[in-house]
């Protein structure tokens, strides 16, 4: 008799991911991109072997999305995964047919490895850990010598805690009255202006010295993130005609793994909402001090716990548990028509990423998703003493980017390299037709 196969493993979506697939459409998905720039051209055959090995190490990426009665869920995906040449488009929606059911893609171009991920699978830090594993395995396949501790890490087996929903692990019962829901939503923020890009999302930016930025922050008695947020808000005020009439609102993701110890590879972040009242700040130092004050008050363990405990309780409520998935999808898409942007800009600082020099990674870039209302979002990530700052744009103009880097220059932090515009090339017929790299 033929051997009976075990049914594919299933995973529930983590609390913060439940509505990502419900809100998604064929044209709009919540994606983000991590790009590694290597010191030599990419070998696609070896890259594909590395990705497939990493999928066995991190099974929460080896999934496809399935429909349940009340919610979507993940199911183990045994299909082949193919890396592909980059088609030049940024954060293009992922289709099941194109990607064999996988919810992320890996592409290559010259010395770049591009990884785009549907946010339901993981947050940026989880995706970076996966990409680091890929890059280390790729370096080993290329014949590079890796330190023993890294070889031991590559030989490690999957860890059960990496697949946990850490929100549920740290959830505590909470009353809805304990959190200021109106304060989380806030009033209508200042929205950036610009001419819509006709060729899809665009990306540009530059690099700064991490040490110079950290020293500047310390001299002002604050943190790197507060310095960058203050400089960004100041730049927004300089380029926007409505800065004297509307508040500048910045959403800043906070990595919860530092406050609530976890090695989860899934989503485990909360947002802090920084509000810069119109006419309240004048100088860049005013904006930096205000960013620092609000981060100290809002990015605390107690405030973060209140926020995600409310989210968990909402998901556990009887109406949401009983409502069928089709109804949730219909309701979400109806209310989406009336949803307005809650922020002027998102600034996400991924922090310092440690990658051994033997892996041959020169820099890493991080792109956030944007929309017709939230037209520009910004990601920062630091590797090897270099911080890459990427502006993802729904508009052609680069006014905010130039104002931001000029603000940093006036603080003594100079742009050491420029990059962009990624996304302006349309997919070539060859790139669109490519079925992957055979092994």
Please provide a brief summary of the model.
By secondary structure, this protein is of the alpha+beta class.
Q: Estimate the global geometry from the Cα principal axes.
A: globular
| Helicity level | 25-40%
Number of strands: 15
The CATH architecture of the largest domain: 2-Layer Sandwich
**How many separate structural domains?**
2
Structural class by SSE content? alpha+beta
Distance between the termini: 32 Å
The CATH homology group name of the largest domain: Nonribosomal peptide synthetase, condensation domain
Task: Please name the CATH topology of the largest domain.
Answer: Chloramphenicol Acetyltransferase
Q: What's the mean pLDDT score?
A: 89
Number of helices: 15
Secondary-structure element string = EHEHEEEHEEHHHHEHHEEHHHHEEEEHEH
Rg calculated over all Cα atoms? 22 Å
Major sheet strand order: 10-9-11-13-14-8-15
Instruction: Characterize the largest beta sheet: strand count, sense, and whether it forms a barrel.
Output: 7 strands, mixed
The proportion of residues in beta strands is 15-25%
Question: Would you mind describing this structure in some detail?
Answer:
The protein is of the alpha+beta class and 439 residues long. It folds into two domains: 10-146, Chloramphenicol Acetyltransferase (2-Layer Sandwich), CATH 3.30.559; 169-422, Chloramphenicol Acetyltransferase, CATH 3.30.559.30. Helices cover 34% and strands 23% of the residues. It has a seven-stranded mixed sheet. The protein is globular, with a radius of gyration of 22 Å. Mean pLDDT is 89; it is low at 424-439.
């Amino acid at each position: 008799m033929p051997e009976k196969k075990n049914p594919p493993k299933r995973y529930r979506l983590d609390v913060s991911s439940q509505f990502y697939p419900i809100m998604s459409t064929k044209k709009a998905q919540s994606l983000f991109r991590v790009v590694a720039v290597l010191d030599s051209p990419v070998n696609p055959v070896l890259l594909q072997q590395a990705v497939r090995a990493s999928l066995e190490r991190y099974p929460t990426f080896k999934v496809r999305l399935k429909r349940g009665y009340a919610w979507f869920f993940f199911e183990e995906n045994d299909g082949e995964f193919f890396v592909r040449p980059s088609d030049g488009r940024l954060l293009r929606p992922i289709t099941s047919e194109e990607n064999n059911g996988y919810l992320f893609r890996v592409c290559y171009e010259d010395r770049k490895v591009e990884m785009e991920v549907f946010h339901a699978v993981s947050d940026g830090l989880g995706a970076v850990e996966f990409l680091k594993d890929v890059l280390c395995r790729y370096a080993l396949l290329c014949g590079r010598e890796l330190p023993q501790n890294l070889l031991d890490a590559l030989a490690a087996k999957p860890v059960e805690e990496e697949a946990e929903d850490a929100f549920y692990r740290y959830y505590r019962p909470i009353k809805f009255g304990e959190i200021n829901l109106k304060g989380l939503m806030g009033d209508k923020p200042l929205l950036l202006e610009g001419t819509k890009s006709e060729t899809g999302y665009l990306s540009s930016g530059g690099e700064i010295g991490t040490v110079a930025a950290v020293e500047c922050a310390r001299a002002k008695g604050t943190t790197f993130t507060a310095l960058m947020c203050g400089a960004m808000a100041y730049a927004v005020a300089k380029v926007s005609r409505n800065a004297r009439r509307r508040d500048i609102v910045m959403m800043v993701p906070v990595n919860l793994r530092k406050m609530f110890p976890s090695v989860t590879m899934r989503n485990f972040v909360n947002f802090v909402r920084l509000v810069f009242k119109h006419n309240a700040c004048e100088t860049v130092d005013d904006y930096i001090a205000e960013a620092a004050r609000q981060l100290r008050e809002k990015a605390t363990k107690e405030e973060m716990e209140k926020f995600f405990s409310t989210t968990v309780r909402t998901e556990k409520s009887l109406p949401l548990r009983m409502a069928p998935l089709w109804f949730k999808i219909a309701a979400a898409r109806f209310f989406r028509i009336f949803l307005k942007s809650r922020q002027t800009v998102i600034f996400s600082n991924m922090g310092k990423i440690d990658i051994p020099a033997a892996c041959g990674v020169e820099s890493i870039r991080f792109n956030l998703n944007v929309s017709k209302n939230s037209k520009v979002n910004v990601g920062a990530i630091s590797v090897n003493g270099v911080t890459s700052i990427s502006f993802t744009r729904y508009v052609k103009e680069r006014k905010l980017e130039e104002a931001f880097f000029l603000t940093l220059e006036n603080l003594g932090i100079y742009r050491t390299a420029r990059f962009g515009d990624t996304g302006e090339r349309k997919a070539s017929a060859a790139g669109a037709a490519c079925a992957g790299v055979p092994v």
